[in-house]
């Protein structure tokens, strides 16, 4: 594994930060084939590098639901139905969902009452939903379109190195 000193990054612009984070994730994943280890390390890296977040992790599609996967933060909801909450909505529509105020989102599932904004990016392979990457913040309006685009690129990178079996 290529080691990167993430504490010494000097990213003054958000775009530079996401380029650096994407490259760091790529370096972390490229030499490891185990999908679970890769998701674990990805969440740890995002957790360590992102400011103002209180939860980051993956929910993986299993038996018609999203099931809690590797994450960093407080204990989370274990299962989310497709179409429910922000994560289930992103999985249903297979598009990123950016929510500035989760309390105003119809059907929001409050796993952590400290969360106030959320960004969810689906992981797909063709028509197959693999899961979602979920990032929560205690700040209102923490995420914007630059964050959405940055994490969509990161999910592309993750999927390039990841092969989650259909039945895990």
Strand content: 25-35%
Oligomer: single chain
Major sheet summary line = 6 strands, antiparallel
* Helix residue percentage: 25-40%
SS-based class: alpha+beta
Number-wise, the strands total 6
Shape: globular
Helical segment tally?
4
Topology:
Blueprint lengths: L13 H16 L5 H15 L5 E8 L2 E9 L5 E3 L3 H9 L3 E3 L17 E9 L2 E10 L7 H17 L7
Antiparallel strand pairs: 1-2, 1-6, 2-3, 4-5, 5-6
Helix pairs in contact: 1-2, 1-4
Molecular structure report:
The chain is an alpha+beta fold. It contains four helices and six strands. It has helices spanning 14-29, 35-49, 85-93, 145-161; strands at 55-62, 65-73, 79-81, 97-99, 117-125, 128-137. It has a six-stranded antiparallel β-sheet, sandwiched between helices. Strand 1 and strand 2 (65-73) form a beta hairpin. The longest helix has 17 residues, at 145-161. The chain starts with 13 loop residues before the first helix and ends in a 7-residue tail after the last helix.
């Amino acid at each position: 594994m290529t080691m990167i000193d993430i504490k010494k990054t000097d990213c003054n612009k958000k775009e530079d930060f996401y380029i650096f984070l994407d490259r760091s994730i790529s370096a972390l994943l490229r030499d490891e084939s185990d999908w679970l280890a890769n998701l674990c390390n990805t969440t740890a890296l995002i957790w360590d590098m992102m400011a103002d977040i209180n939860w980051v992790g993956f929910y993986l599609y299993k038996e018609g639901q999203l099931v809690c996967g590797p994450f960093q933060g407080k204990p989370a909801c274990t299962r989310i139905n497709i179409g429910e909450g922000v994560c289930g909505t992103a999985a249903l529509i297979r598009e990123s969902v950016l929510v500035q105020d989760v309390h105003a989102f119809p059907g929001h599932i409050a796993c952590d009452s400290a969360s106030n904004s959320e960004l969810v990016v689906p992981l797909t392979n063709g028509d197959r939903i693999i899961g979602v990457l979920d990032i929560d913040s205690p700040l209102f309006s923490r995420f914007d379109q630059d964050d959405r685009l940055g994490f969509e690129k990161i999910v592309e990178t993750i999927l390039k190195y990841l092969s989650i079996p259909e039945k895990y």
